């Protein structure tokens, strides 16, 4: 049994190293979407969006249940603690806000198992006015690993789930913004 566990561990470690070496930069997930609303409406809704509304449980990634923000999340320099359904937390800091163009943030101080793999996550949103009331949005998550072994494990075991989590959140945002029957009062 011990030999089997060592073999599996060694195989995963070697695979992780191979994946890490094939990706020289940080691990990254990206979502590109086109939303059928003007850029100002998309930007003004997305920047301060309620995180528990868009971040539902996805495979082994827990849902967000609340944040402790004390003011509307629209100004660079604001920080908040994000609480997950499994009892873990992280700290999020809004780094830049360029109205109707882009915003960025970092997520760090993980109390989940991610603390062993990642220094931080860097999130970037870029909004482009396509005309005709359409907005293209590019949302990028860069996971900054603690070391090359961690990068391999992130790429091997976590990156696809993060991609799915972001895709699900984007689908919710798009539906909210394109909804015309008045169900979402916060628009």
Structure description:
It is a single chain. β3 (79-84) and β4 (89-98) form a beta hairpin. The longest helix has 31 residues, at 148-178. By secondary structure, the protein is of the alpha+beta class. It has a single domain (2-178), classed as Alpha-D-Glucose-1,6-Bisphosphate, Chain A, domain 4 (2-Layer Sandwich), CATH 3.30.530.20. It has a seven-stranded antiparallel β-sheet with strand order 1-7-6-5-4-3-2. The protein is globular and about 45 Å long. The chain contains four helices and seven strands; from the N terminus they run αβααββββββα. The protein has helices at 2-22, 39-46, 51-54, 148-178; strands at residues 27-35, 64-67, 79-84, 89-98, 102-108, 118-131, 134-145.
């Amino acid at each position: 049994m011990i030999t089997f566990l060592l073999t599996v561990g060694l195989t995963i470690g070697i695979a992780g190293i191979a994946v890490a070496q094939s990706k020289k930069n940080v691990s990254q997930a990206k979502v590109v979407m086109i939303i059928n609303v003007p850029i100002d409406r998309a930007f003004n809704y997305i920047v301060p969006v309620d995180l528990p509304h868009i971040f539902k449980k996805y495979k082994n990634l827990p849902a967000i249940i609340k944040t402790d923000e004390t003011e509307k999340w629209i100004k660079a320099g604001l920080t908040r603690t994000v609480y997950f359904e499994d009892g873990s937390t992280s700290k999020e800091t809004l780094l830049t806000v360029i109205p109707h163009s882009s915003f960025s943030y970092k997520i760090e101080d993980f109390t989940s198992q991610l603390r062993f793999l990642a220094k931080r996550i860097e999130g970037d949103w870029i909004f482009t006015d396509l005309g005709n009331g359409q907005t293209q949005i590019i949302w990028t998550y860069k996971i900054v690993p603690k070391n090359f072994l961690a990068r391999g494990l992130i790429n091997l075991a976590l990156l696809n789930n993060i991609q799915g989590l972001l895709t699900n959140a984007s689908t919710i945002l798009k539906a909210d913004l394109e909804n015309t029957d008045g169900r979402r009062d916060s628009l």
